[in-house]
Design brief:
Blueprint (H helix, E strand, L loop, with lengths): L1 H6 L7 H7 L1 H14 L34 H9 L2 H8 L13 H15 L1 H8 L3 H25 L10 H31 L14 H11 L11 H5 L11 H46 L6 H20 L1 H27 L15 H46 L3 H32 L19 H36 L18 H17 L1 H18 L7 H4 L8 H15 L15 H12 L1
Helix pairs in contact: 3-7, 3-8, 4-9, 4-12, 5-12, 7-8, 8-9, 10-19, 12-13, 12-14, 12-15, 13-15, 14-15, 14-18, 15-16, 15-18
C-alpha cells in the first residue's frame, strides 16, 4: 500500500523542465562575466567587433591542463552535475524527438545543454572579478539548491526502495551545492574586504606553482641517504609527495566518478528490487501449482530447482554488491597512484613502461584524448562495476552449487569426493610439469660456468637422452596443451573482465594496444600534461618571463650585484662560461648531450662517454 501511494506522488517541480529554464540565468551570468572580461588584443577598426571595444572576452570554466589551485572547489562543482550525468549515461534525457539514426546528435545536444546549465558554477569560481562572480555564483547555486530541496521534500519516497528513496538519489548533489554556497560566500567576504581596503590585493599569480618549484629544487639537491624507514603503507600502497599535486581535472574526475558510482549502485539496487518483486510473483504462481498438484505433478522437481535457482541468484547478487563496489572504489584510488607514477616517469624521460607505438603519439590525438579522458573514465568505471558484479555473481553461483548446496542437500561426501578427485588430478598434472623442469635442469643442461652464476647456461647436455625425452613427451604434451589452451582462455576472460574498469592498463595483447581506445585516451592525456605541466619546463618559462619583465621595466638583472661590485668588471661571456663550467661539474652527464665543435671527432666523444660511464 505504501509503495502504491509513493508511486503516485507528483512533484510540482519538473527537473527536466527546470533544466531548460535554467539556461536563461546561465546565459545571463555568462554575458555579465564576459562583459567584465577584457580581451587582450583589440580588433582592427574595419572589424565589426571593434564597436565592442575590448569588452566581452572569452571566459572559460576552468583550465583542464594547468590548474592546481582551488582544486576541490572545482571537484565539488563537478559533483553537483552527477545526477544529470547519470541521466545522460542512461540515455534517459532526450530534449528533442528525432529519428533513431540521429540519436548521437540528440545526446550531443543534451550534453551541451547540461554543460551550459552548470557552466556558471565553474565560471564564477575561476573569474578574476570575485566580488561580482561570488554574488552571481551564490544566487545561481541557491536556485539549484532550493529547487532540489523542493523536489526531495515533496516526494521523498518512491516505489522501489520505499522511504527516502529520492533523498538517496539527491543527497550528494545537495551536499555539493551546499559546499558551493559556502565557497561563494567565503569568496564574497574575502573580495569585499579587499574592496574596502581591509586586506591587500593578491599579487598576480605566477605560472610556476609552489610544488613545481620544490620539485625542481629537489632535483638540484644532492641525493641524501634515506634516514627514516618507510612504513608498509608507504611502501606498498601510497606515499605522500609534497612536491606533487594532482591537477583539477583529475580531482574533478575522481569526485564525479565516486558520486556517479554511488548513484549507479542505487539505480541497480532499485532495478533489483523491481526484478525481485516480479520473481516473487512468479514464485507464488509456482507454489500454487505445487499445492494444486499436491507435490505429485510431473514438473514438481523442475519447479523446485527453479525456485532454488531464483533464491540462490537473489542472495548471491545482493552479497556481491559490496565486493564489486569496493573493487571499483579501489580502482579509483589506484588510478591516482598510477597517474603520479606514470607522469613522473615521463618527466624523467622514461618511456619504457609504454608500448613502443605510444612513444611518439600524434599531437592531435593527444589533444582529443584529454577532452575524452574524464568522461570515458567515468563510463569505464560504471560499466566496469556492472561487468565485475556479474562476474562475481557467476563465481558466487559456482561456489554455491559446487560447495554449499551439496552440503545442504546432504551430499557433502559426494561433493568432497569429487573435489578431492579434481584437486588430485590438477596436482598430478602440475607435478608432472614441475618434474619436467627438474629433469631438464638436472640432466639436460651443462654445469655452471662460475660459482656466482644464478642458473646454468642454455647449453644442452646428454643430447641422446634429451631427444628421447622430447620424443616420448611429445604425445603427452599434445593432450596437456588442450588444458593449457582452455586455462589461457579462462584466465584471459577473468583478467579482462576484472580489469575492464582500469583505463590506465590495456587488456589487449602486445601489438594490439592501439585498439584499446580507453588506454589511448590515457596515454594522450599523460602526454598533454607532461608537455604543459613539466616542472622543469615551467620553471624555465617562469625564469624567461621574469627576466623579460625585469628588462621591460629597466630593472637590474639577475647578476646586478656582480656587475656593480668594487672589484674588476667581469664580462658577460666569462660569467656565462663560469656558470656553464659549474653546471657541468655538478651534472657531468650533460657533457654527452653538448653539441660537438668541428674540431672534435666522434672518437673523442666516445672516449668521453666511456669515461663518464666508468
Amino acid at each position: 500500500m505504501t509503495r502504491q501511494l509513493n508511486g503516485t506522488c507528483t512533484s510540482s517541480v519538473d527537473m527536466e523542465l527546470f533544466l531548460h529554464y535554467s539556461l536563461i540565468p546561465s546565459l545571463f551570468i555568462i554575458l555579465i562575466l564576459s562583459f567584465l572580461q577584457r580581451r587582450e588584443h583589440r580588433r582592427q577598426r574595419d572589424d565589426t567587433s571593434y564597436l565592442l571595444g575590448n569588452r566581452f572576452g572569452i571566459i572559460m570554466p576552468l583550465d583542464f591542463v594547468g590548474t592546481f589551485s582551488n582544486r576541490w572547489s572545482y571537484g565539488i562543482a563537478f559533483g553537483a552535475t552527477a545526477n544529470k550525468v547519470m541521466f545522460l549515461f542512461s540515455e534517459g534525457y532526450q530534449p528533442l524527438q528525432i529519428p533513431q539514426w540521429a540519436q548521437a546528435f540528440e545526446l550531443l545536444i543534451g550534453g551541451f545543454e547540461v554543460g551550459l546549465s552548470h557552466f556558471p558554477f565553474f565560471a564564477c569560481l575561476s573569474s578574476e572579478f570575485q566580488l561580482v562572480s561570488s554574488i552571481l555564483g551564490f544566487c545561481y547555486s541557491l536556485i539549484w539548491f532550493a529547487v532540489t530541496v523542493l523536489q526531495v521534500s515533496q516526494c521523498p519516497h518512491r516505489q522501489f526502495v520505499g522511504k527516502y528513496e529520492t533523498l538517496m538519489f539527491y543527497w550528494p548533489s545537495l551536499l555539493c551545492l551546499a559546499f558551493l554556497l559556502g565557497r561563494f560566500l567565503h569568496m564574497f567576504v574575502k573580495a569585499l574586504r579587499v574592496h574596502l581596503g581591509w586586506e591587500f590585493q593578491v599579487e598576480e599569480k605566477s605560472i610556476l606553482e609552489t610544488h613545481q618549484a620544490e620539485h625542481v629544487k629537489q632535483l638540484l639537491r644532492t641525493p641524501r641517504p634515506q634516514e627514516k624507514k618507510k612504513s608498509w603503507f608507504q611502501t606498498r600502497i601510497y606515499e605522500w609527495d609534497p612536491c606533487f599535486q594532482f591537477p583539477s581535472r583529475m580531482i574533478g574526475t575522481i569526485v564525479l566518478a565516486f558520486i556517479c558510482l554511488y548513484l549507479f549502485i542505487v539505480i541497480e539496487f532499485c532495478v533489483f528490487v523491481y526484478v525481485r518483486d516480479e520473481l516473487d510473483v512468479f514464485e507464488n504462481k509456482l507454489e500454487s501449482y505445487i499445492t494444486f498438484t499436491n507435490h505429485s505433478g510431473v514438473l514438481t522437481p523442475v519447479i523446485l530447482q527453479v525456485k532454488e535457482l531464483i533464491s540462490v541468484t537473489k542472495g548471491v547478487w545482493v552479497a556481491t554488491i559490496l565486493p564489486a563496489s569496493l573493487t571499483c572504489v579501489s580502482y579509483l584510488f589506484h588510478i591516482l597512484v598510477c597517474y603520479r607514477k606514470h607522469i613522473k616517469r615521463l618527466w624523467a624521460g622514461d618511456k619504457h613502461f609504454l608500448p613502443l607505438k605510444f612513444h611518439n603519439p600524434a599531437s592531435s590525438a593527444s589533444v582529443v584524448a584529454i577532452a575524452r579522458y574524464s568522461g570515458w573514465q567515468i563510463a569505464y568505471i560504471l560499466w566496469g562495476y556492472l561487468i565485475i558484479h556479474v562476474v562475481q555473481s557467476l563465481c558466487g553461483m559456482a561456489v554455491m552449487y559446487g560447495l554449499v548446496l551439496p552440503i545442504v542437500h546432504n551430499q557433502g561426501l559426494e561433493m568432497l569426493q569429487g573435489l578431492g578427485i579434481g584437486i588430485l588430478t590438477i596436482s598430478i598434472i602440475v607435478g608432472l610439469m614441475i618434474l619436467q623442469m627438474w629433469i631438464a635442469a638436472s640432466f639436460f643442461l651443462q654445469p655452471k660456468l662460475g660459482t656466482a652464476d644464478k642458473q646454468k647456461p642454455l647449453a644442452l647436455n646428454n643430447r641422446k637422452a634429451f631427444h628421447n625425452f622430447n620424443y616420448f613427451l611429445f604425445f603427452y604434451n599434445v593432450l596437456l596443451g588442450l588444458g593449457a589452451c582452455l586455462s589461457r582462455l579462462l584466465i584471459s576472460c577473468l583478467l579482462g573482465t576484472w580489469l575492464i574498469a582500469r583505463i590506465d592498463r590495456t587488456i589487449m595483447q602486445n601489438g594490439y594496444e592501439g585498439a584499446d581506445m580507453g588506454f589511448s585516451a590515457w596515454i594522450g592525456m599523460l602526454y598533454v600534461d607532461h608537455y604543459h605541466t613539466n616542472p622543469v619546463l615551467v620553471s624555465f618559462c617562469h625564469i624567461l618571463i621574469a627576466n623579460h619583465k625585469e628588462k621591460k621595466l629597466q630593472q637590474t638583472t639577475k647578476y646586478w650585484c656582480l656587475n656593480q661590485s668594487a672589484g674588476p668588471r667581469v664580462s658577460a661571456r666569462s660569467r656565462t662560461r663560469w656558470f656553464l663550467l659549474q653546471t657541468l661539474i655538478n651534472n657531468p652527464r650533460l657533457i654527452i648531450h653538448r653539441k660537438l665543435k668541428s674540431g672534435h671527432s666522434s672518437q673523442e666523444s666516445q672516449i668521453l662517454m666511456a669515461c663518464l660511464e666508468s
